[in-house]
Records
---
Amino acid sequence: MRRAALGLAAWPARRSAAIARVSRCNSYANRVIGRRCISHHTNQSIAQLLQWKPAEKADDVVVNGYVRSVRSMKAHRFVSLGDGSSLAPLQALVHTDQAQGLAVGAAVRLTGSWVASPGNSQSHELHASKVEVLGPSDPKTFPIQKKYQTPEYLRTMPHLRPRTPLQGLLLRLRSDAIATLTHFFASQRFTQTHPPIITSSDCEGAGEVFTLAPATKPDRSGSKSVPEDSFFRSKKYLTVSTQLHLEALAQAVGNVWTLSPVFRAEQSDTSRHLSEFYMLEAEMSFVDNLETVMDLTENMLRSLSTSLFATTTIQELFSRSAQIGSGLAPADEVKRRWEGLMQPSWPRITYTEAIRLLQQKAELFTLKPTWGAGLQSEHEKFLAEHVGGGKPVFVTNYPRDIKAFYMLEAQSDPQSPGATVECFDLLVPELCEIAGGSMREHRLPHLLDAMRRHGVVTPASQMAGEIIAGQDSHDSGSNLGWYVDLRRWGCPPHGGFGLGFDRLLSYMAGVQTVRDIVAFPRWYGRCDC
Ligand SMILES: NC(=O)C[C@H](N)C(=O)O
């Protein structure tokens, strides 16, 4: 903003009003609603400027951005400018005499007149009268170019990749989604919480935890290593899910949610797996059936997709996916996904029914669908496509022995050949599982039984209902005395779910791999910067 032009220093009240106006202009709501909020003398985002189509030319317009490309004419240069606020660039016309330093990648501030453009690709353009190169760039070595660059190549430089128009769009999609979800949960009176990242237990009991170790540095005596369990006096881990801590918080303040990074040391080198990702988790207390938890999951996703669908970010997403070589799934496929998410009444079938359906089509699968075994991705894919008819599908009541220890055992079902738990996986076409949830075992003896069965607590002394906080095994990764304690004092029936936030975004955006929906992806074998 040009303070002198506004007389800001001399007029503090006017200054704060102007600042408030500019920050309103830059706000999420503005970008979403696309309200026009342009005034002279202030530097607008490029997205705002592009929406401003005055009949008269406007002078003293200031814009900040990065040079995407430069086209030389005789007396002028056409400079294409981006600032991450929109997919489309702003076109500026700069006199050759002033074009010094206007190189691809440079950070610049241009001041000039905003005028109707004779070109087809934009309604208006900036005729620059002043050029300031605030951060020069060497275009010969700048790795991001306007031409097509493969996702694999861009992934080798995660620190520069966010400057590509597509990555800018995906960052805005993420930000808009978080704002919308925050609003959704607030409207449902959920408390947003921050459970810990460093934990003393493996929530899922699947052994996929990263163990935390302090850096080893020579101590005064010159001897090196600090044992990995010395800092916290016992082994600690990066969280795989915040669920268990959320349960403690739900017992205090009712319904809670969080969007938190979680870490999984899975050696899965696939387009769906990351070692660090964000999980959206919610926990409801005083809830006694799984239907309520599924309703929440479904309502949340429908509300999210319906709200986002109206935004300029999503319009840009569809326009980008319609381009050849866009790096996204084709536009009609992406639209189908959104339509599915926005529809009401998603199908819910039990695992037992799912196995029956799959067995009728057994010839389609490499791995035979068998009751008691986990669903393979080919099975999930079939269910997502054939049961859902485009909508996401809930598969409920999986066998007890293939699910986590904390799930509530279901009332026996005469249709089912074995014991099941009150749980669900939510499957979407193409990507398959994006969320999972369950009712939690809230009864002390039953929880202890389940832990025993799953081998979660190993020492014999702790198996007789005598688990006391702080006295569990430190080696088994199952330091869960505190979790058992929650059942001793006022534990109501409760349940919740966890949703892979990056998976969801990649599904909504039509991005082919979760590695491209995350700015700095970490996966098996890779953690670049
Ligand atoms: N909060 C949840 O229910 C998520 C669950 N703990 C999981 O990791 O799948």
---
Amino acid sequence: MSQLVRIGDCDVGPGCPVFFVAEIGINHNGSLDLAKQLIDGALAAGCDAVKFQKRTPELCVPKAQWHIERDTPWGRLTYIDYRRKIELGVHEYEEIDRYCRGRGILWFASCWDEPSVDFMEQFEPPCYKAASASLTDHALIRKMKRTGRPLMLSTGMSTIEEIDAAVDAVGVSDLLVAHSTSLYPCPPELLNLRMIGTLVERFPTCPIGYSGHEVGLAPSCAAVAMGARFVERHITLDRAMWGTDQAASVEIGGLVRLLTNIRDIERSMGDGVKHVYPLEHAARTKLRRVRTDLIEMNGASHPHEINGVA
Ligand SMILES: C=C(OP(=O)(O)O)C(=O)O
């Protein structure tokens, strides 16, 4: 049975509400104002946390790509300048920290390099996230884990051997593992949601979750029915907005529906034991056919015996 992992004021694991992370990622396009509107949307939908991506562009962008030019909302920029442009700095994160704490929503980040972990520590985040791309970077994932904070490990683009090695590298205590396929957006036939069950069996003490990049809501709902203890989805104000992750994101209206569906599914799962609920008795009495012909044939003394009601 999986351990409960405490993230801020939420327990994540069996018997707890699904922990829902609204992944803002880089969908703020470098704008604090946009980031705040996305936080407001996550709050309105009832998400437990918002998440950002923190990078040191000079460490994360391979040198060979630095000077490749692209069109951006800020004009034609080299890739490294574009990455610098969309990276939020200390003053923006101070404001995000103040904004989230004031409104009672958790926030944290996936750190893509070691200095980003040092940077995030000043905000005392409730946990860290390792993106699928970082799963084989053991120095980085160990650094996040050494902070003593829970770690969410995403497993897209990884072999099962690489996942085992990453889990060995950080240990299972306070570790959460997310199934994911790293395609943005991901077609349904490549989502492989049955991996959730595989991960539950392989890492029985870790809460297993789902980091989804599909178009639509159904697979994320199914992930919950299949045992995901936490779910992460990218969010956006408008899927047509400029940016690489916008198309695979959920707009705020969809996010509201998704959270409503997830909470309904959680309440619907039950215990797997067959009950005849007291509230069903009226329907049972009214709708079950009373076999008077069999009463006569069997010599039963009371129609209820045929009807099966004790
Ligand atoms: C890319 C990320 O996550 P995932 O691999 O789950 O999509 C991230 O959290 O930065």
